[in-house]
Amino acid sequence: MPSTDSADDFISVFLLQHKSSIYLMTSPQPSNSHDSATPCIRNAQRADIPAILEIIEPYIQQHILIPRNAEELEKLIPHGFVSEDAGQVVGFAAVEIYSSKLAEVQCLAVHEDYQKQGLGKQLVEACVERAREEQVFELLAITSSDSFLLSCGFDYSLPDQRRALFLRTGSQRKQAD
């Protein structure tokens, strides 16, 4: 199960700027062809939604991810990616494109049995590549794990000048509808 380091953990915001010095050094294309002995990253499909819901549920229960229902996931599918092992979906991430200036990595989750194998990083790389393809200027990721996103090539964008602030305008749903 995913965990946080302490009760004092805070949410950090990273922006991947449109500067070659901050981009990831490797940008593999999502692929449907792979060695059947290792998980692969491929484009998400509508048929993957039930499996994605199962993968994200533990993260929702731990308040690491926000609750999502099938309809909300369906909106992420066009720019979503899954990690698949022997026909089973074991991870998911998507990039939500807000404009040509900004997109966000959303709903990153890897099944507990497949963690620490680099799948999360591969899913993030697929999202970064999609943002590049769509010529998005900055890619945002909200996380409670700074070190993971730093290892993926993200960095704070102008940390002395820009901050992301949040205002809750409603109550968080307890369960996805």
Neighbour order of strands in the largest sheet? 1-6-5-4-3-2
Contiguous runs where pLDDT drops below 50 for at least 5 residues: 1-35
Domain count, please report it: 1
* CATH architecture tag: 3-Layer(aba) Sandwich
Question: Would you give the CATH topology?
Answer: Aminopeptidase
Given helix and strand content, the structural type is alpha+beta
Number of helices: 4
* Structural Rg: 16 Å
CATH homologous superfamily classification: Gcn5-related N-acetyltransferase (GNAT)
What's the helical proportion of residues? 10-25%
- What is the end-to-end distance? 23 Å
H/E element string?
Answer: EEHHEEEHEH
Which structural traits does this protein have?
six-stranded mixed beta sheet, single chain, alpha+beta, 177 residues, Aminopeptidase
Describe the structure.
A 6-stranded mixed sheet has the order 1-6-5-4-3-2. The protein has a single domain (12-151), classed as 3-Layer(aba) Sandwich (Aminopeptidase). By secondary structure, it is of the alpha+beta class. Helices cover 23% and strands 23% of the residues. The longest helix is centred in the last third of the chain and has 15 residues, at 119-133. The protein has helices spanning 49-61, 70-76, 119-133, 146-151; strands spanning 12-16, 40-43, 80-85, 88-97, 102-110, 138-143. It has 4 helices and 6 strands; from the N terminus they run E-E-H-H-E-E-E-H-E-H.
